[in-house]
């Protein structure tokens, strides 16, 4: 049985210039027997505009730990669903398997854990005729690996947050708050 009950993590990896492919996964990892497992099971239905799906790497290749993903924004089109359930899902799945292979996720607890991933996919991506799907894959893969590592190591720590309180501010506060 795992002692990982409820861990959270997030990461942002920015797009290449001219792309809308920023990735910002927010994740919950925990025991299938605890609150994370309850939340996971509660997501088994669908919510209008927010498709939920198991993370798979390809047909018949569902990842372990079992992972459910959903979009942070209301899904606007079939083209959006195709990117979300295609490139983005594959990138997240590959990142999870690589975290198992690299020991970031405990392989011996893969069936005792589950994950929920809230995914940012910019609604402009499906309409962008110059969309770089390789960059979409890169940002989601890198961000997912970082989010998992942060969740399992408790990063940033309370001490790190306190230490950088006056040196780091949300980008939306530029010109609003001065430290």
From TrEMBL:
Keywords for the protein's UniProt record, in alphabetical order:
Lyase
Q: What's the superkingdom here?
A: Bacteria
What SUPFAM superfamilies does UniProt report for this protein, alphabetically?
Ribosomal protein S5 domain 2-like
Whether Nuclease counts among this entry's keywords is no
A Pfam match = Fae
Residue span(s) of domain Formaldehyde-activating enzyme: 8-171
Q: tRNA-binding among the record's keywords?
A: no
Q: Which NCBIfam families match?
A: one_C_fae
Please report the name of this protein according to its UniProt entry. Answer: Formaldehyde-activating enzyme
User: Which organism is this entry from?
Assistant: Ancylobacter oerskovii
């Amino acid at each position: 049985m795992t002692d990982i009950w409820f861990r959270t993590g997030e990461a942002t990896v920015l797009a290449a210039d001219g792309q809308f492919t920023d990735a910002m996964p927010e994740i919950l990892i925990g025991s299938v027997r605890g609150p994370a497992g309850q939340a996971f099971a509660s997501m088994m239905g669908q919510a209008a505009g927010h498709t939920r799906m198991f993370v798979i790497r390809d047909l018949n290749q569902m990842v372990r730990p079992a992972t459910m993903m959903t979009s942070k924004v209301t899904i606007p089109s079939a083209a959006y669903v195709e990117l979300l359930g295609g490139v983005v899902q594959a990138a997240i799945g590959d990142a999870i398997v690589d975290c198992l292979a690299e020991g970031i996720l405990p392989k011996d607890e893969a069936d005792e854990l589950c994950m929920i991933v809230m995914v940012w996919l910019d609604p402009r991506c499906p309409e962008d005729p110059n969309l770089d799907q390789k960059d979409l894959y890169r940002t989601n893969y890198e961000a997912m690996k970082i989010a998992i590592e942060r969740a399992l190591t408790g990063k940033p720590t309370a001490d790190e947050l306190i230490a950088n309180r006056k040196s780091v501010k949300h980008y939306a506060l530029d010109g609003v708050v001065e430290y």
